[in-house]
Amino acid sequence: MKFAQAMLAVAAATAMQFSASPDAFATGKMKCDAGPQSGWKSRTDLEAKLKKDGWTIKKSKVDGGCYEVYGVTPEGQNVEAYFHPVTMEKLLVSQRGKVIFKK
Amino acid sequence: MLRLINVHGFFWLLLAVPAIGMTIGFLRDPVTAFDLIHPSGEFSVRFMIMAMMISPLRALFGRQRWLDWLLARRRALGVAACLCGLLHLAFYLYDMGDWGMIAEEALIFSIWTGYAALAIFVAMGVTSNNASQRAMRANWKRLQRLVYPAALLIALHWVYVDGETMGMIVHFAPLLLLETARVMLMFKRRSARSGTGAVTG
């Protein structure tokens, strides 16, 4: 019984450790060293540029210091894409985890 | 409240709350389908893991009232996992909205692993009743054991779609530790038995 209780305590402690650490949930797919956000181009501008290029945007947010965009490419692929927030350069495009573009 | 949770119907209803909430959210604003794909999948995994934890807990702690209580509700947990999995698929299909694109993505590793896991869940879900259990006899147990490959497929599906491991690890770690403990305890008991056998034999 002591052995079982010890294992259960380890399981609970592990779960608590992970859930208490917000950094544990950063995706880490792409990191951008883009400086302070005051120097970034706006996300609205990026979305407008992508829409002009034929993209359909579902959602966008900041992840790892980059702009992360979920949407459909002009070629009709559902993707998750990362862009540099200062240069707006395309850094990574993945389709359901399959990398289809990487700078 | 404690007495109410013992009522099976209420327990089923309690498990349905996340799915009901997500469905209402979707019906109010179908654009949310994209945002509901991940949480519906996560609820499916949570229910599956809760159901899967009961056996190793019983192996480690023996017969306990709270474990008997959970065991009596394992079927409900399994069916909830299956239904949330189907909801996860429904949100995905709606969000994609194009059969050609859906077919193209089905060949990607991260996606077909999800379909394969869901196919196992559906097979288990539709046979989660006493009549199927009686009709299938030993095959019913064999089918239920497919939850282990399904869990592996789900872990792969999650990691490859998300491109990160932490979310999956947080959910699967307790189960993995319990299963490891169960196997270790099994070996410990086996070696103790063979040791006793050597002395007496």
TrEMBL record, chain A:
Signal peptide region: 1-26
Top-rank lineage group of the source organism: Bacteria
Protein species of origin: Blastomonas natatoria
Record domain PepSY: where: 11-89
Keywords: Signal
Pfam families from the UniProt entry: PepSY_2 (PF13670)
Name by which UniProt lists this protein: YpeB-like protein with putative protease inhibitory function
TrEMBL record, chain B:
Compartments in which it is found: Membrane
Residue intervals of the Ferric oxidoreductase domain: 43-154
Membrane-topology descriptor: Multi-pass membrane protein
Main localisation: membrane
Full protein name: Sulfoxide reductase heme-binding subunit YedZ
Taxonomic source organism: Blastomonas natatoria
Keyword Transmembrane helix: yes
InterPro entries in the record: Fe3_Rdtase_TM_dom, MsrQ-like
Transmembrane segments: 7-27, 47-64, 76-94, 106-126, 146-161, 167-185
GO molecular function annotation: FMN binding; heme binding; oxidoreductase activity, acting on diphenols and related substances as donors
